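Let's sit down with a protein and look at its sequence and fold side by side. Once you have written the record down, we can walk along the chain together.
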Amino acid sequence: MLEIIKALVQSVLPGQHRSSVEIEVPNNENYGDYSTNIALVLAKETKKDPREIANKLKDELSRADNKRLMASISVLGAGFINFKLSDRTLTDNVRDIMRTDRDYGRSKHGRDQRVLLEFVSANPTGPLHIGHGRWAAIGDSLANILRTIGHRVDSEFYVNDAGEQVERLTDSIISRFEDKPVPANGYAGSYVADLAKTIGSSDRKKVRASAIRSVIEQQKHTLEAMSVRFNKWYYESDLHRSKKIPQTIKDIKKKGLTFHEGNALWFKSSEFGDDKNRVLVKEDGSFTYFAADIAYHADKFRRGYNRLINVWGTDHHGYVPRLKAALEALGYPAEKLEIIIGQLVALYRGSELVRMSKRTGEMVTLKEVLDEIGEPATRYFLTRNSPNTHLDFDLELAKSKSMENPVYYVGYAHARICSILKEAKKAGLRPDAKARLSLLTTDVERKLMLKLMRYPDELVIAGRNLQPHRLTAYGEELAGIYHNYYHQHRVITGDRDLSISRLVLAKSTSIVIRNMLKLLGIEAPKEM
């Protein structure tokens, strides 16, 4: 609807002003369903009174609204133009939900976008922790949203199997196998002892290969328990074998953007906005992780993707400018690389901070959280907050069957509707899209229909701004409206026509809740 209203406003404006149109949802619902400040924007350019411009536009918009989408168009405040949708527009949308069902919310908004979404990309050195789980939930949900609005999306896990961390893991396993102390910078978890026992060797090549294979299989198993699967697992070792790293460095050299200092080769990244220059080849002749990462991201563009999205942990924050600098130096559109920097997760049981696993005395793994509270609650809570904010994850709340638990609150709205539909079927009543929806006249029914109308817009905004948490906020608001409706009005009444109309509204609400939860990787419950 946002795009429809935007097009309506643009239709009455001269061409040079059409790009200035922005449509928003007013904070105060009494002001209308949608609003635009275009009159204030034009007033600054023309030095005319904004209310005068707004009133003139209002009259032109009223004439241009041939489909009678609007019940009213009004001017408020300093010159805001406000729109109130007609009852027919709202009820037609409810019928559309019934007709399109699982496809409601789908669009071709991103039809020209081929996206590579990289997330998790944990080092193959141990079990996934809850932070990795957050990137998994956010990344997978975002992939689902982008696909739903028309993007062609591939998901990828980058396996850093050629770095120092893997060598440290190898040293640690061999030390455990030989019953020696773990190196000071090694890995001391109980899983290392398990790997040493399983591999049963001190042969470095065998230990290294077996450890990587075992850890990755464990990571895949944990991710699959969250219904997270990748289109591709891209190994850094393959990148090295392909000779893409030296070729990338050669391409940077050709542009005169490198210099030697000592025996190291440096990239002049400061010329592209980085805070200092960066090493590409170390003094011993080995490539830096940065050099490999440049080659990896250049390869993403070469594979034909025109939008790259990475979900990274907070420790990568300073890495963004240098990577974009390198891509720009190579002639790639650095602005097409979008990086979400996620913040930390703290686990709680009520008010008590959980630092260690009760079972092992070590970090709490993602698998342990999944085993304790299940996939739906894990995915919902890890997606619920903006990735830019710190997340306090209350395990007790996530397990509770109470309306204070947001995943329960949203799921219960769906289950409640399923129960109503089941009872209606026993009474010989079924939701019929041809019902007299004009009978839906209460304030809360209008509010519910308007919220359903906004679902496709929420998908587009969430995809455009890389904000899957918008869906959990939307779902909780929608569930809240429906719970309120349920307590105010009986769906099955003595009036057959009214009952069927309300069943259509209930069914439409359940469709949207189900579709929304599906994008978060959660099956909507039919009973609770």
Remarks:
- The domain at 403-519 is CATH 1.10.730.10 (Isoleucyl-tRNA Synthetase; Domain 1).
- The mean pLDDT is 95.
